[in-house]
Amino acid sequence: MSKDTLVVGDAKEKEEIHIRKIQRTARNSMTTVDGISPNTNFDQMIRKMKKQFHCNGSFSNLDEDGSKSDSKNKEPNCSVRLTLTGDQRVNVMEFLVKEGVCKKENITLHGC
Questions:
Q1: What is the CATH superfamily name and number for domain 17-109?
Q2: CB of 41 within 8 A of CB of 13?
Q3: How many CB atoms lie within 10 A of CB 21?
Q4: How do residues 3-18 score in pLDDT, each as one tens digit?
Q5: pTM recorded for the entire structure
């Protein structure tokens, strides 16, 4: 795997990615991204997004019920949620398509 590759394998055909805006307070909001393949290099992806969008962000493992799991180890079938500060829905969509993580048809923007 090269340093510039975000996805290992060919996972972009079947995944459905959901990008949502969550309103925290009157002025503050955050963007969540669900459904990205577990074969993705999340450390490198979140680092590139934070630098390009000038925001803060993190990723966390989720249990089957959607709550955050305590373990930091990536299990093969676990779900991962990316969280970015601010309304970054369009930026994230363009980033995922440009980096080859998924196709534009597989992305659903919520709250437009």
A1: SUI1-like domain (3.30.780.10)
A2: no
A3: 16
A4: 566 765 555 556 899 9
A5: 0.81
